[in-house]
Design goal:
The chain has 165 residues and is mainly alpha-helical. Helices cover 73% and strands 0% of the residues. The radius of gyration is 24 Å and the shape is extended.
Length: 165
């Protein structure tokens, strides 16, 4: 007879998992104590907007990016087969775009200027620089990603045997 043992992990992992559940439970109780209907409405609205609007948009953008990578430039090999490694380059656009989108999502009220007066009255600071900073961070993310792509492509070219060049 075979006995089944649950993969529980180390005692430290169990302790950390228990503490994170306790912290999440405490935050949930505190969050739902005042305006539970508003919080529930916000979660449902966020899920609906994400699933019905945002997910199809960024899935279509990703498919277009992959299609562009498959059809760009001269092809090596058969006419219907994309060259190896071209799809891997899509990650150099996905990662900075995802990080920039996440920053836009989190800081959108300040980037758009919709809450500039409220921000200024609460902090005593101006909210005028958020759009410029977000654009600068986005440019840096894409620039660093492009630099990393060039460096990795150059290293891969140097590592190939001379006959392949």
């Amino acid at each position: 007879m075979t006995t089944y043992r649950l993969p529980l992990g180390s005692p430290l992992q169990l302790l950390l998992l228990t503490c994170s559940f306790a912290l999440a439970g405490y935050a949930g109780v505190r969050l739902l104590a005042d305006d539970w209907f508003g919080v529930a409405l916000w979660f449902v609205g966020a899920a609906v907007v994400h699933d019905l609007v945002l997910l199809p948009l960024y899935a279509a953008a990703d498919r277009a990016l992959i299609r562009a990578a498959d059809t760009a430039g001269p092809r090596a090999g058969a006419a219907d087969t994309p060259p190896p490694g071209r799809r891997a380059r899509v990650m150099y656009v996905r990662v900075p775009a995802a990080l920039s989108g996440l920053l836009l999502l989190v800081w959108f009220p300040l980037i758009s200027g919709r809450v500039a007066d409220r921000y200024a009255s609460a902090t005593g600071m101006s909210a005028s620089g958020f759009l410029g900073r977000w654009l600068l961070i986005t440019a840096l993310l894409f620039g660093c990603s492009a630099l990393l792509l060039v460096l990795r492509a150059r290293r891969a070219t140097k590592d190939r045997p001379p006959a392949v060049h």
